[in-house]
């Protein structure tokens, strides 16, 4: 069993590798990396978008942003990935939270809690789950990683919605129609 010191060294090593990979300002090419699995890390992304390490909130937004850039999803599991290692983490709902949206007549661009911006389109759909009483709206951010659209942003989307095909209420963005009802 790994000691706390070993676990902290692993987390620090992953953070250092992520920082190196992200130096150009873009996202690291995690889709190209297939390193060996090195075990699970006691890290969790909670339903409200907050990140915890060993039960303690990660309070540095820059560190959360850094970890978010090396997040990868494989099936139902989530991993932090570097060229040299892959460690499992827990995600309660979605790894990101859409906290704002720029809504225009033909485009909806979301901003996530980690600073990603994504325009709803064919590759980044708005996905409705839940039901009419408790809708659960998401937007695809990248490579299987979704953002739960927070309540205030969803209310803004609903206020801007119009009737679309088949009488469904929703929004147009980037040439696509996204229904806002399940």
TrEMBL record:
Classification via InterPro entries: DUF1285, DUF1285_beta_roll_sf, DUF1285_C, DUF1285_N
UniProt domain DUF1285: residue ranges: 28-94, 95-180
**Protein name per its UniProtKB record:** DUF1285 domain-containing protein
């Amino acid at each position: 069993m790994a000691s706390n010191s070993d676990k902290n060294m692993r987390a620090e090593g992953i953070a250092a590798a992520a920082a190196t990979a992200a130096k150009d300002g873009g996202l690291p090419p995690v889709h190209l990396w297939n390193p060996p699995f090195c075990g699970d890390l006691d890290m969790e992304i909670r339903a409200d978008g907050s990140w915890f390490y060993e039960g303690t909130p990660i309070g540095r937004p820059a560190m959360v942003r850094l970890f978010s850039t090396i997040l990868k999803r494989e099936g139902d599991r989530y991993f932090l990935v570097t060229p040299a290692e892959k460690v499992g983490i827990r995600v309660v709902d979605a790894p990101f939270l859409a906290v704002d949206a720029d809504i225009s007549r033909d485009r909806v661009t979301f901003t996530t809690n980690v600073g990603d911006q994504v325009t709803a389109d064919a590759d980044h759909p708005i996905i409705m789950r839940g039901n009419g009483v408790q809708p659960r709206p998401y937007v695809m951010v990248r490579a299987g990683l979704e953002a739960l659209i927070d309540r205030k942003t969803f209310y803004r989307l609903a206020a801007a919605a119009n009737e679309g095909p088949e009488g469904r209420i929703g929004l147009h963005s980037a040439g696509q129609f996204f229904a806002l009802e399940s």
